[in-house]
User: What shape does this take?
Amino acid sequence: MADSALTTKLRTDYREPAIDCNFEEFAKVVESRRSVRLFTDEKIPDAIVERCLDLTLAAPNSSNLQPWEFYWVKTPENFTKLQEYCLSQNAAKTAATLIVCVARPDRWRLGQKINLDYFATRKDVPPPVYDYYQRLVPFVYGNGPLGIFGPFKTLLMNALGLFKVMPRGPFGRSGNLLWATKTTALACENLMLAFRAAGYDSCPMEGMDEVRIKKLLKLPCCASVAMVISAGKRAPDGIYAPRIRGPKDVFIHKF
Assistant: This one.
């Protein structure tokens, strides 16, 4: 079932040509994105934040299940509380905008429904795709009451993996949380690059009181705050040091 959905060339009538992009302009956006610690008093127009959030949701994600949520905290009372819960660090205290990026491993069923509902409107969806979302997705991401199936799936896949190439996760609550967090992090990068392209800057903050933030946003216990992204107009002294990176050959390997 998995092989037919993932390795078979699917025959559909859909076509989406790649558009021409300016590589050097994109490189400027990536290279000029910095973690800014101080922002000016300039506000970010709501329309720009909305557009940046649209681009956030365009990020790639596992099986298109979209296990994420993004909370744009706008009310003054909640904004002040969130600044405090981000340890009152400068990147939060001076930000024009704060967005909480949340991994939601429990919402794979919603992602499944979104895809199946879309497929129901079309006549050209290959059967292996239906099989993938109707049968494989629940097996991989569903763990039963209290997660009791997770350990058994892990044992099964590892045993089968002795004889053939097999996926080794995500299984169980911890596996699903890691899966959702990785996908959410991809979207976070989209958000920060979008702000930079719009002429603003950002800072991904992991230093925070997650318990208080989850309470503020009324999040369930299974949700996880991946990071809080602050954004605004870069202050002249908003970057504390040049970008420091190790030698390329320490991190990039060719085999």
